[in-house]
Target: HTH-type transcriptional regulatory protein TyrR
Amino acid sequence: MKDQMNHGAHSDAGASFFQNLRLSISDPLIKLMDSIHNPVVAVDSDSRIVLCNQTFGEVVGRTRRELLGAPIRSVVAETRLTRIVETGETESARKIRIAGKAYLANRTPIINNGNVVGAVALLQDISGIEALADELKLSSSTNEELQDIIESSFDGIFVTDGTGKVTRLNRAYERLTGIRRSEIIGKTMAELVTQGYYSESVTLKVLKSGQPESLVQEVKNGKTIMVTGTPVLNKSGDTTRVVTNVRDVTELNRLQHELCTMRTLRSHYEVELNSLRLNQGDGQYVIRSKKMREIRTLALRIAQVDSTVLIHGESGVGKEMVAEMIHEGGKRKSKPFIKINCASIPENLLEAELFGYAPGSFTGASSKGKAGLFEAARNGTIFMDEVGEMSLPLQSKLLRVIQEKEITRIGDTRPVAVDVRIITATNRDLETMVQEKSFRKDLFFRLNVVPVFIPPLRERAEAIVPLIYHFLAKYNKRFGFSKQLDPEAVDILTGHGWPGNVRELENVIERLVVITAGEIIGITDIPDSIRRTGGVGRMPTLSGRPLKEILEEVEARAIDEALKTHGTTRKAAEALGVNQSTVVRKASRYGLRSEGA
Model:
């Protein structure tokens, strides 16, 4: 009862105080309060608003008329002015949120005649300061993260400001150079060069040029490092920092050496694997002589790159076989392998075969046109045998294909891109032909990037016996026979000069398998041209033989010699003074084989 009476007395005293205060406040004082930027509000002992400035009204979104007499809690739910009225204690710098904004509040009791008659609060908007604090906190976190990233880098990182003063470096830099950050932080690069820490400074070069710079640098501990400095520019284009990346050249050289070694080993293993694959394949390659093993190894090495290859060798030595090895041992092995004998196709048709033609481009041309062999070999390999037989105009077009990697069909103007590996072969002396101006010099150099010389069979006699038994097995299997060679017959075959090389040997073995009556192929079954000393160049024995047999033997030798000398049935026919069809028919009859038409 007594407390209620005291509260009533205080309330009356407060009411009287604020009534007298309102009467004493003049318009200038009200204007002065409203000019205060910070919100101000006062309450009486009943926590009702008795005084506020215009800024406070703006903060809570009400007019002064609406606020006066209203309970403070109905305006600011989190207010502590009520507590100040109750305790009479002062509170300083307490954070409060009003309408989503942060304020710092200073609250003071109003005392009259020793009694607490109310309380007043002065607020300070700290939203901007709070946002700045959050930004600083984020910036600090980002800076720590950036420092962690720099420190975790394997490469050395070294940073200076726009004057060349060292501001930051990481542990990797200390590890690579042996220089501690305590030695150089805060010093300029000009000082450090003078003191002998560095032979020269990439930072100073960057500051001078304004561009990224690199150099090989010697540091204090004797190490050699590769450094690359990069400028950091502001909006005005001025250099504010230089960031330098550092790598130990010794370590880089070691890695590069290891990489080269691995590539060499890989290439070696690829060659060996391809060699094993060829040796364990279907038996189509019989390689016994040292020279041919060397050629096989060379072919498998060549297969790993796309350089143009020119294979030199006499007719029948196996140029096509080597070309197949190169194709099968390389990355194009799953793509087409197209073969063409340039001497076997008439000159007027060879261009169309190689490059194709547009619809109706010449008499007899298909109405749909036709793709040439270069297009058919796209992404694969084209093997052009007897390339020395090409005419000069056609040589020019082949040169363009090699240089431009595109062809143009006959009768068309649109070029067609072709990605083709070119392997060529010849049994002629192209260098002599270049001197005689029957073969283009520039084309010869383009084709002869990687030359491969295949020796004749007479220079690798150790291969003859394995080849004999290889072809014997091949034709026994083909024709369903099981014929064998008499050892003396093998000696005769081994002693022959084989001017037609492997092709001639294969033809002879096929003929012996086919025409020999018994199971054993003996000396008497071998043709006289091989059995008799002197071979093809000697005249047959005349006595005791029918004239027809003698004439046939002479005819066979003449055609055989002409084919081996001139290479094609067309040229052999011209040399013998007969029609090409006659040479083709009789060569077939006698089991002879030519390079082509």
Notes: The chain has four domains: 2-129, 153-251, 288-455, 470-589.
